[in-house]
Design brief:
single chain; 487 residues; mainly beta; five-stranded mixed β-sheet; 6 helices; disordered N terminus
Length: 487
C-alpha cells in the first residue's frame, strides 16, 4: 500500500503524520463506500482490506460474546479504561479516556466518555455484527472535553485514583489532569487551551510516547527524545509551590497558571529515543524502558541512576513498547518494528547485557505498537500492530501440539481480532470486566479519514479449558435433542 502523502518531510511517526488532513466533506460524500481509496494506486490494497474485513464481520456472531463499533471523526492515539461508575443487571457504566488528533482546523482534545459495557451472555449474536461503520455507537457517549495543548500521544490513568490522568504531547512536559474538576470545553477554532492541574518537568527534549503510572504509589515515569527516563512522585507536589516556568526551549505548555513539579530522578543509559517505560508490579523503585536503540533496560532507583541490566539487542529494530507481567514479575514483554514480540525472563538477564528471550512471538505483518498482559490470566497477553490486528497469545500453549485444522498457526496465538482496517495504535484490557478490550485504529491511510474505536469480548468458548468447553457443548447438544419432537 502506498503511504499517505504528507507535506512535511520527516521520519514517520506512530499515528498521523504532521500535516496530513482528514478528507473534506465533499470528498467523503462522493465516496460511496468508506473503504474506497482516494488514490488509484491504493485500489488493489483497499480491495484486500475490504475482503479481509468482510470475512471477519461474517464470523463476528461466532467469535464474540459482545462487540461495539464506534466511528471517530478524528483518530485517537490512545485509549484507556477509567473508573467504574455504575453496575446494573445487564450492563456496567464505565469511564473511557480517548483523544482527538486533528489537522488544526479545530483544537486537539482529551475526551472523557461514558461507556455502557454489556455483561457476558447478554447480547444477542445476531445483533453484535449489525453495525454501521460510519456511525457512532449508542454504547459510547461523550461526557467531557478538555482542550489539550498539542495532540495527545499517550494517556495513562493513576491506579490509586482513576479520575487523575497523565498525558504526553509533543513537548518535554508530562501533564496531569483532574478529570472531575476540569471544566467541560467546546472545541472550536481559536478556543483557549485548558490548563493542566500539574505539569511535570525534567526532560530536556520532547517526550511523546513513553509514559507509565506505578500500580501501588502515585509515581509517574516518562521517557523521551533526550534519551532520559524520568521519575516523579505526585506526593512531592504537596510541598511544591507554583513559581516561574522553568520549561526547556520548545515547550508548548503555558505553565504560568499551572503548578510544576521537578523529578525525583533522571536515569541515563539509552543512546536513542526512549519509546516506552513500565513499572515493576511489585516495586515502586524498579522499572524498565525500551527505545529506538533496540535496548531493554532495567533500573532500580534505590541504587542509583545507571542501568541495572541492559539488553543491547532486544530486537533487530526500534523497540516500541514494553509491559511487565502483573501476575509474575519475572516476565517482561517487548514489541518492535521488526514485527515481533519477545518475552524476557529477568532471571536470565545479566548485568553485562547478555540474555535471550524466553520466546519470540512472530505473526504480525507490520511494526508492533502495543503489548499488554491480560489481567485475567497470567500467561495471556495481547499485541497490536500496524497490520490492523490485535493478537491474543498464551505462552503456556507454546510447544503444545496444535489442534487439527490449525497447522500453520503461530505458536501461542489463539485469537486474532481483525475488526480494524488500519493500524491499531493502542488497546487496553478492562480490569473491571474480564476479557473485555478497547482498541483504536488510525484509519487515515485506508478510509476517508478519522479512526475506529472498538470494544469487544471474545466468546468464553475460546479461552476456557478445552475439556470444560467440550462438556458444556455436549450438554447443550443433549438439551437440544431433548427439546425435539417426540417419536
Amino acid at each position: 500500500m502506498e503511504e499517505a502523502s504528507s507535506p512535511l518531510s520527516q521520519p514517520k511517526k506512530r499515528g498521523r503524520p504532521k500535516g496530513t488532513k482528514r478528507s473534506t466533506t465533499e470528498e467523503t460524500e462522493t465516496s460511496p463506500h468508506k473503504m474506497k481509496p482516494t488514490a488509484a494506486g491504493n485500489k488493489k490494497a483497499a480491495v484486500v482490506v475490504d475482503d479481509k474485513y468482510s470475512n471477519w464481520k461474517s464470523v463476528v456472531p461466532i467469535l464474540y460474546d459482545w462487540l461495539a463499533n464506534h466511528n471517530l471523526m478524528w483518530p485517537s492515539l490512545s485509549c484507556r479504561w477509567g473508573p467504574l461508575l455504575e453496575q446494573a443487571k445487564n450492563k456496567n457504566r464505565q469511564r473511557l479516556y480517548l483523544s482527538e488528533q486533528t489537522d488544526g482546523s479545530v483544537p486537539n482534545t482529551l475526551v472523557i466518555a461514558n461507556c455502557d459495557v454489556v455483561k457476558p451472555k447478554v447480547a444477542a449474536a445476531e445483533h453484535i455484527s449489525q453495525f454501521n461503520e460510519e456511525a457512532r455507537s449508542p454504547f459510547v457517549k461523550k461526557y467531557k472535553t478538555i482542550i489539550h495543548p498539542g495532540e495527545v500521544n499517550r494517556i495513562r490513568e493513576l491506579p490509586q485514583n482513576k479520575n487523575i490522568v497523565a498525558t504526553h504531547t509533543d513537548c518535554p512536559e508530562v501533564l496531569i489532569w483532574d478529570i472531575e474538576t476540569q471544566p467541560n470545553r467546546h472545541a472550536v477554532l481559536g478556543a483557549a487551551e485548558s490548563h493542566a492541574d500539574l505539569v511535570l518537568t525534567g526532560h530536556a527534549d520532547n517526550a511523546e510516547f513513553a509514559l507509565a503510572m506505578c500500580p501501588t504509589e502515585p509515581y509517574v515515569l516518562s521517557g523521551g527524545k533526550d534519551k532520559y527516563v524520568v521519575l516523579w512522585s505526585i506526593h512531592d507536589h504537596i510541598s511544591t509551590l507554583t513559581g516561574e516556568s522553568t520549561n526547556p526551549p520548545g515547550s508548548i505548555v503555558k505553565t504560568a497558571d499551572n503548578a510544576t513539579l521537578g523529578p525525583r530522578g533522571i536515569f541515563q543509559g539509552h543512546t536513542d529515543t526512549v519509546e516506552d517505560v513500565q513499572f515493576c508490579p511489585t516495586s515502586t523503585q524498579e522499572f524498565c524502558s525500551v527505545g529506538d536503540d533496540s535496548c531493554l533496560i532495567l533500573w532500580d532507583a534505590r541504587v542509583g541512576t545507571n542501568p541495572i541490566t541492559k539488553v543491547e539487542k532486544a530486537h533487530n529494530a526500534d523497540v516500541h513498547c514494553v509491559d511487565w507481567n502483573p501476575h509474575d514479575a519475572n516476565f517482561i514483554l517487548t514489541g518492535s518494528a521488526d514485527h515481533s514480540v519477545c518475552m524476557f525472563d529477568r532471571r536470565n538477564l545479566t548485568s553485562d547485557g547478555v540474555g535471550s528471550p524466553v520466546h519470540k512471538f512472530e505473526e504480525h505483518k507490520a511494526p508492533v505498537l502495543c503489548v499488554q498482559w491480560c489481567p485475567d490470566k497470567s500467561s495471556v497477553f495481547g499485541s497490536s500492530a500496524e497490520d490492523g490486528c490485535v493478537n491474543i497469545w498464551d505462552y503456556e500453549q507454546v510447544g503444545k501440539k496444535m489442534e487439527r485444522g490449525t497447522p500453520n498457526a503461530a505458536p501461542g496465538l489463539f485469537f486474532k481480532h481483525c475488526g480494524h482496517r488500519d493500524k491499531v495504535v493502542d488497546f487496553h484490557w478492562n480490569v473491571d470486566d474480564p476479557w473485555t478490550v478497547v482498541s483504536v485504529s488510525d484509519d487515515v491511510e485506508t478510509t476517508s479519514g478519522g479512526g475506529t474505536l472498538q470494544i469487544w469480548r471474545m466468546s468464553d468458548l475460546i479461552y476456557r479449558p478445552r475439556d470444560e468447553v467440550l462438556t458444556e457443548l455436549e450438554d447443550f447438544k443433549a438439551h437440544v435433542a431433548g427439546c425435539g419432537p417426540k417419536a
